[in-house]
């Protein structure tokens, strides 16, 4: 009498688990790097959206509107005349492990006038935001957000050296 045995033997199961664990251990560093890069991109994009919203609100209200940027990934948009807060993001609402540098050093605000232009009479506005992963994260990704006098913004990669590339950081 012949028995039909269905399923896996213990040896087959152990070999399968061993192969899976090797593959997972190979993929983990790439996943961690990808995740850190994603955090950098999300942070730069969040700052960019906050700046664009402040500019749009200044044009819509035809008043001075200021966006205050924090090095902890927080930001706040306020109408200057009334002090009304239009939008705000706290640092605990975003990615961890991100280092942000605002330039020029000491500047934290950008004020837009009713035409959407940067109002430099309110002090030296932020002209560039550098975003990168903290040292503990294995991420080569660094991005700069450049703010022009006309209020236009651009996210660029400081590692790009070809001047005709769309990701090139002109003047940074």
Account of the protein in words:
This protein has one helix at residues 10-61; strands spanning 65-69, 75-79, 85-89, 98-103, 109-112, 128-133, 142-147, 153-156. The chain has a single domain (10-156), classed as minor pseudopilin epsh domain (minor pseudopilin epsh fold, 3-Layer(bab) Sandwich), CATH 3.55.40.10. The longest helix is centred in the N-terminal third of the chain and has 52 residues, at 10-61. By secondary structure, it is α+β, with helices and mostly antiparallel strands. The strands form two sheets. The chain has a four-stranded antiparallel sheet, covered by helices on one side. The model has no long low-confidence stretch (mean pLDDT 86).
Please describe the structure with a list of short key phrases separated by commas or semicolons.
30% helix; four-stranded antiparallel sheet; minor pseudopilin epsh fold; 172 residues; 24% strand
Could you give a quick summary of the protein structure above?
Helix content is 30%, strand content 24%. It is an alpha+beta fold and 172 residues long.
Task: Summarize the helices and strands and which ones pair or pack.
Layout: H1 10-61, E1 65-69, E2 75-79, E3 85-89, E4 98-103, E5 109-112, E6 128-133, E7 142-147, E8 153-156
Antiparallel strand pairs: 1-2, 1-5, 2-3, 4-6, 6-7, 7-8
């Amino acid at each position: 009498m012949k028995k039909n045995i269905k399923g896996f033997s213990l040896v087959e199961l152990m070999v399968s688990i061993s192969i899976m664990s090797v593959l997972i251990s190979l993929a983990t560093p790439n996943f961690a790097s990808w995740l850190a890069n994603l955090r950098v991109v999300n942070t730069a994009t969040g700052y960019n959206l906050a700046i664009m919203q402040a500019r749009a609100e200044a044009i819509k209200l035809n008043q001075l509107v200021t966006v205050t940027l924090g090095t902890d990934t927080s930001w706040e948009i306020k109408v200057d005349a009334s002090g009304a807060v239009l939008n705000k993001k706290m640092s605990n609402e975003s990615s961890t492990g991100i280092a942000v540098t605002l330039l020029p050093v000491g500047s934290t605000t950008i004020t837009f006038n009713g035409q959407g232009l940067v109002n430099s009479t309110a002090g030296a506005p932020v002209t560039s935001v550098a975003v990168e992963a903290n040292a503990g994260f294995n991420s080569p990704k660094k991005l700069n957000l450049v703010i022009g006098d006309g209020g236009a913004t651009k996210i660029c990669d400081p590692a790009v050296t070809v001047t005709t590339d769309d990701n090139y950081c002109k003047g940074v």
